[in-house]
Amino acid sequence: MRIDDAPGLLREGYTWAGRLRGDRPAVPIRLLGRRAALVGGPEGVRRFYDPSLRRRGALPLPVKLVLFGRGSIHGLDDAEHRHDKAMYLNVLTPAAVDDLSRRAQAEWSAAASSWTADRPVVLFDEAVRVLTASVLSWAGIPDPRADVTGRRLAAVLDGFATPGAPYARAALARWRLNRWAAGLVRKVRRNQIQPRPGTALDVAARARDLDGSLLSETRAAVALLNVVRPTVAVAWFVTYAGIALHQQPEWRRRVASGDSAACRAFAQEVRRLYPFVPVLAARARDEQDVLGVRVPAGGLVVLDVHGTDHDPTHWPEPERFDPNRFLSGPVDPDTLVPQGGGDVRTGHRCPGEDVTLTMIEVATRALAETPYTLPPQDFRVDLSRMPTLPRSRVVMTVPPSSDQRPSETEPSRSGHEIA
């Protein structure tokens, strides 16, 4: 019997799947006691989103309950999934994303104006604060303790896949967030608060199940958190964007000059180089062939997200940060899957992908226009940590006079950045 590969995933994190798969579209593995196929590359992505696979039961319960919540869309299939997906798409309309963008621009502008030369700023913490404030107001959520909510959301995201103290902190934060979100839903239903029509809180509180019954407070709270939480997760991308801008002065100038195409390409390259998770999982509905690997009914199919986004066949010199990749023509969507693949309306591709890109762009533009520097610090990244951050969480300083040009010096690094 093949040895279970789960310990390797915990040890190696982002590089685990690529090491096992190499340049093959699929290899047999054993994960969590189940026979499985590890797939990647465009062919693997297309196979992973085939209807013969399902999401129910694919994730370990401890991870699912802390990150997504009980009954979340991430574990639904077929009619249930399409029904819930429609709710999210109704919230995340182009007009709503534009509204969120304007709110984030205002929050970043206010944040940058408060940065002073005598106070170093931890970019990750600042991004969590700004993104939380932006998404809560946009979602119609009144929250006088937004900073506390932001820290709890960050704790969930930081520890959901890390055993020990980080997971315990994440589980406690999730429990508190569940109570908070359920309380908001309850207040809407009792007319104690009245969010703007069409906002995430309004839609979640009034959402109905496939049979037409009102969602329970618990499930409505989960739906609300699954709009708010991914927006705060953009703080990880923003942190890496801060380093990349510092290391790429020419791109920093282009973004600051108002070049929207350069800004979008920069944001895409941040997502490609630094995906949030290393892998995704699905289950086989019945025994089937997965690109040459036999998977039994209930067996797993695991998508190598990091390896697909770093495939040298489609991304030459994949460890090099180069936004030009996204300025030379259309990109095959099955080669760029930092938030999953497939069709956003009918499949399991993240409906908040436009939100993520927009939030990275807004932050990138704000940072490019700010004359910050990165003093010597520990930029090393633990690739076994999921998700992972530079150890310093990126400390910035601003000069005494705001009319100084952004520094073009390289940060003092030890170790390596995520690859």
Please give a handful of descriptors for the protein shown.
Cytochrome p450, 419 residues, 5-stranded mixed beta sheet, two-stranded antiparallel ribbon, alpha+beta, single chain, disordered C terminus
The counted number of beta strands is 9
What is the CA-CA span between the terminal residues? Answer: 32 Å
Order of helices and strands: HHEEHEHHHEHHHHHHHEEEEHHE
Structural class by secondary-structure content: alpha+beta
Number of helices: 15
Strand order of the largest sheet: 1-2-8-5-3
Largest sheet: 5 strands, mixed
Strand fraction equals: 5-15%
Shape label: globular
Helix percent reads: 40-55%
Number of domains: 1
CATH topology: Cytochrome p450
How confident overall, as mean pLDDT? 93
Radius of gyration: 21 Å
CATH superfamily placement: Cytochrome P450
The CATH class turns out to be: Mainly Alpha
CATH architecture heading: Orthogonal Bundle
- Enumerate the spans where pLDDT stays under 50 for 5 or more consecutive residues: 402-419
Binding site for heme: 350
Organism: Jiangella ureilytica
Protein name: Cytochrome P450
Region (Disordered): 396-419
